[in-house]
Amino acid sequence: MTATGFPRAALFDLDGTLLDSAPDMLATANRMRASRGFGPMTIEGLRPHVSKGSRAMLAAAFPDMEQGPREALVPEFLTIYQEELGRHSMLFDGVAEMLDALEAAGSVWGIVTNKPEYLARDILPQLGWSDRCAVLIGGDTLAEKKPHPLPLQVAAERIGMAIADCVYVGDDERDIQASRAAGMPSIAALWGYRQAHEDPGQWKADVMVELPAALIAPSAWPAPSVS
Fold this sequence. Notes:
By secondary structure, the chain is an alpha/beta fold.
């Protein structure tokens, strides 16, 4: 921990944790639906699937389509999404202040996401994070992605931190699974994207937090793991 009680390093999932990107995803899905003669879907219909990735969102957008043809839509989804990237999304309330508090305490922070790295990297300058984000690991950066622990292990290595000095924050069960496998303390972000059947209480995160603003307080962060 830093002298102020914050972890030395905080690693975050991106979509559903730092960034409310569901509106960008919705614009993407609705462009694809419109080109096929379908009406728009609602944000409520798409939001629970965002953290599960493009295939899950395509399944929500085209529920009657066979899996094979739907799989073939992934490249189109990613191409259109790159055009919509950052046009409609916004930070969750309290995220900016939380990152400011971490930096003021001398902590570093980075992003470990399953989003393709090129898409995650493209959003950084739009958010003013190009020089603030200490490390970025995407879903295609390494041979493995979450829930495998490798992305978290490599992220810690790249910022020169021990696993025990980091905390990972994410809104999906795979985030917590990756944290546990890596031996890294974790926070379940309850403000993020979840499907109705998912129960974060079963994920075994070290801490569950309702809103980003709570993480402005050092006491809300879990204690470092024992290395």
